[in-house]
Fold this sequence. Notes:
Layout: H1 2-26, H2 34-45, H3 54-61, H4 67-81, H5 94-129, H6 134-148, H7 151-166, H8 181-215, H9 218-225, H10 230-252, H11 254-267, H12 273-282, H13 286-314
Amino acid sequence: MSAYIIRRLLLIIPTLFILTILVFLSVRFIPGDIVDxxxxxxxxxxxxxxxxxxxxxxxxxxxxxxxxxxxxRWMGDILLHGTLxxxxxxxxxxxxxxxxxxxxxxxxxxxxxxxxLVIALPVGIYSATRHDTFADYVGRSVAIIxxxxxxxxxxxxxxxxxxxxxxxxxxxKLIPFTEDPLGNIGMFLIPSVILGTALSAGTxxxxxxxxxxVLRQDYIRTAWSKGLKERAVIVRHAIKNAIIPVVTLxxxxxxxxxxxxxxxxxxxxxxGLGRLMxxxxxxxxxxxxxxxxxFFGVVVIGANLAIDLVYHYLDPRVRYE
Length: 321
């Protein structure tokens, strides 16, 4: 087990190196740069009467050198000083901005994941145990609807139509949990339900499929023949073996959870990492975008490693050599 963990950790090193290159270069392919935005803003404010020294601004922001040198400086800050750099606009450190926004994103993600599992697992298990019945057809239909409904569209509809019909709209100001726990949970509830419902569809289908496969195994038939009650057969024998591929799917959905949180945070005005990243993208704040993307990548890689290690505890037959 320890040898496997060491190999996986060593494999993470080249993965992270490639990830740093991708997140550093991808944002620079976007048309325009921060100097163009500053120049356009200055021209608008001065009605075209004042021009900026473009070369001086590029030197100040560190954009006066080739891209490979900018990447070297960025990696040097990470490896030698343990910092992701500073924002080009605010001057604050990127890790401080991430830590300030992280609790909001974590709360949204955990609530959405919890809602997804609460919906997907019971419905998937019940649908499998009632195979080809009306309940099974309803569960499968709900899963298809969940897969085919874009969560960003649903979030926009929730914002628009209740405001038109009933004059109600979700709170657009963050309510700290320490000040009003119920108000805080209520603020996150709607975006969490929308995001969790979208994530639950695929998990529900996988749970149903794996439960059907397990329920057809010989040891399940033996348990039925012994006269065990349905609850005992499902809980003691079927669920634990059927849940392993579902855990894999949950790990694979983490990037979807990250991208979904970006959308929900912007629709519902939640001050999390997703909103911070889109603001930085619109302002071409390269270090901020690269730092947030790298942070998300590290989280996804670490979570997938943790999920792989959970297999051993879910199924003792799994051995890591």
